[in-house]
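Hi all, posting the design record for the shared folder.

TITLE: backbone redesign
STEP: 1 of 1
STRUCTURE INPUT:
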């Protein structure tokens, strides 16, 4: 491996602002950048763009796409295939980025260049980040030792534990119920919600348990019967059984979990729209004007199914429920690395040495306190402030670092920052150092409410079953095949599981379950596991 960090670098280097003062005698370096922007952004004239251009004596020329992931990916692919692509790509991992297979393929073709030497010679803040978070360096490094692109390191605590569940504790109090701790107790609570008129309007209009197509029903409850690894960062249903990769959706415990949910649905305890409605429909239910009707829901945060800050205070009545213990005592939650494998930043073979150096310095600047805050939020004093005495950090383990100012929804767009495109190193210190008020039920306490809820799920996953998909670099020659297998299997399982829960298929019928298993095998399960087993075995060497 040609990249080598030399000696320990102080953490303070990461947060310091590196002084970059271009000589006025030097001509500007022009750099083409492929990047996503929203309808209210103009990257070519944004405040942070002009700041970077002045600081590094460059002229950035953005070729833009939107935030629709499919459209963004298609435009990027067309650009690469045509040969008419810019010197750099600066992307957002959850919109579109280079996959690990693409990094190896384009790296071997020479279309993108290794960053090892550029980082070693011109990027002290990236080096410091690698030393501070060795897993970040591991995530960025291909099996051949090259760093073909930089992933966005996002140590997002609440993202890693995304399968959360919230219950109306006001209803619990009105009905004299305790917070449920087991699946059996939870069924009793739902029956009370259905039959006890907790909203007090004299009508049986309560929805005991709700969900939607984004904030899915199954993953949270499946953890009481079988480990379900699905989360925000990965929809994969893979886990480890010793050193063997296995598919969770065919295990006996998975069937037990579906049977539990099917029983709740048959009793009329689950929202009929749980598998078909979008988040907007969930919000409409949560904001029902006549009465509060949602008793509980799966979601990262209550704001996803009820508007925060309502005058009747209904949004304050939902509190998180830790994983419920199932019949065998299992109480798992899913865990995923919030940082996505692949790369958001690459330099192509169109870049001259001068452009390469300028580009890596710009990204390195976004690893500093000032550069990160400016890129993500905008101008100091207008979009963010440094902490003052009395400010509280989100995570008490870290000192206050920055205070993002609230955005006035009635004000015109500022066109100041690059937003998520500037999130190259959001480690625990950065995310935990965000200034947040102590009151979790007020709109301003959104992040603290989420942080405190996540503490109830932290570490409650079977570490020995965790499949480290983020460190699995599969063969580029089979990448398309693997991706298609994954989509087919995931789509089938999602649809079939919904049919089992809603009674369209009988989960208690051995023949129906055998047909389900046969269908999954017919979609290429054996080959899918073979490809991932090969990748896992190679990563373990």
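Okay, here is what came back for every position:
SEQUENCE:
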């Amino acid at each position: 491996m040609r990249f080598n960090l030399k000696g320990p670098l102080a953490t303070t280097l990461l947060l310091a602002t590196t002084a970059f003062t271009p000589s006025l005698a030097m001509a500007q370096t022009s750099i083409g950048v492929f990047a996503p922007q929203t309808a209210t952004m103009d990257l070519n004239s944004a405040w942070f763009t002009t700041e970077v251009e002045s600081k590094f004596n460059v002229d950035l020329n953005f070729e833009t796409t939107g935030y629709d992931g499919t459209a963004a990916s298609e435009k990027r692919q067309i650009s690469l295939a045509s040969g008419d692509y810019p010197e750099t790509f600066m992307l957002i991992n959850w919109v579109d980025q280079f996959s690990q297979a693409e990094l190896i393929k384009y790296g071997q073709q020479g279309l993108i260049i290794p960053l090892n030497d550029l980082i070693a010679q011109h990027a002290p803040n990236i080096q410091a980040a690698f030393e501070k978070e060795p897993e970040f360096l591991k995530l960025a490094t291909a099996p051949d030792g090259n760093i073909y692109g930089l992933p966005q390191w996002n140590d997002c605590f609440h993202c890693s534990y995304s399968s959360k569940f919230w219950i109306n504790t006001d209803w619990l109090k009105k009905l004299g119920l305790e917070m449920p701790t087991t699946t059996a107790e939870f069924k009793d609570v739902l029956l009370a919600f259905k039959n006890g008129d907790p909203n007090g309007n004299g009508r049986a209009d309560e929805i005991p348990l709700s969900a939607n197509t984004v904030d899915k029903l199954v993953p949270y409850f499946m953890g009481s019967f079988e480990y379900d690894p699905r989360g925000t960062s990965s929809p994969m249903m893979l886990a480890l059984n010793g050193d063997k990769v296995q598919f969770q959706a065919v295990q006996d415990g998975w069937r037990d979990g579906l049977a539990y949910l099917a029983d709740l649905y048959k009793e009329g305890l689950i929202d009929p729209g749980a598998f078909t409605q979008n988040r907007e429909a969930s919000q409409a239910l949560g904001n029902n004007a006549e009465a509060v009707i949602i008793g509980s829901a799966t979601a990262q945060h209550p704001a996803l199914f009820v508007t925060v800050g309502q005058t009747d205070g209904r949004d304050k009545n939902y509190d998180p429920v830790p994983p419920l213990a199932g019949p065998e005592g299992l109480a798992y939650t899913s865990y995923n690395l919030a940082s996505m494998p692949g790369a958001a930043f690459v330099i192509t073979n169109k870049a001259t040495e001068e452009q390469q150096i300028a580009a890596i310095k710009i990204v390195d600047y976004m690893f500093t306190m000032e550069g990160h805050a400016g890129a993500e939020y905008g101008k100091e004093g207008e979009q963010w402030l440094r902490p003052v005495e009395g400010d509280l950090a989100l995570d008490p383990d870290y000192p206050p670092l920055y205070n993002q100012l609230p955005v006035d929804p009635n004000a015109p767009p500022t066109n100041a920052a690059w937003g998520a495109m500037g999130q190259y190193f959001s480690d625990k210190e950065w995310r935990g150092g965000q200034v947040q008020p102590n009151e979790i039920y007020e709109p301003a306490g959104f992040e603290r409410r989420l942080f405190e809820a996540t503490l109830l799920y932290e570490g409650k996953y079977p570490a020995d079953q965790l499949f480290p998909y983020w460190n699995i670099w599969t063969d580029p020659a089979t990448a398309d095949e693997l991706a298609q297998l994954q989509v087919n299997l995931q789509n089938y399982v999602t649809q079939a599981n919904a049919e089992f829960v809603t009674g369209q298929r009988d989960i208690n019928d051995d023949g129906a379950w055998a047909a389900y298993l046969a269908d999954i095998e017919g979609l290429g399960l054996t080959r899918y596991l073979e490809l991932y087993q090969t990748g896992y075995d190679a990563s373990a060497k």
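COMMENT: The chain is about 35% helix and 10% strand.
Let me know if anyone wants the other runs.
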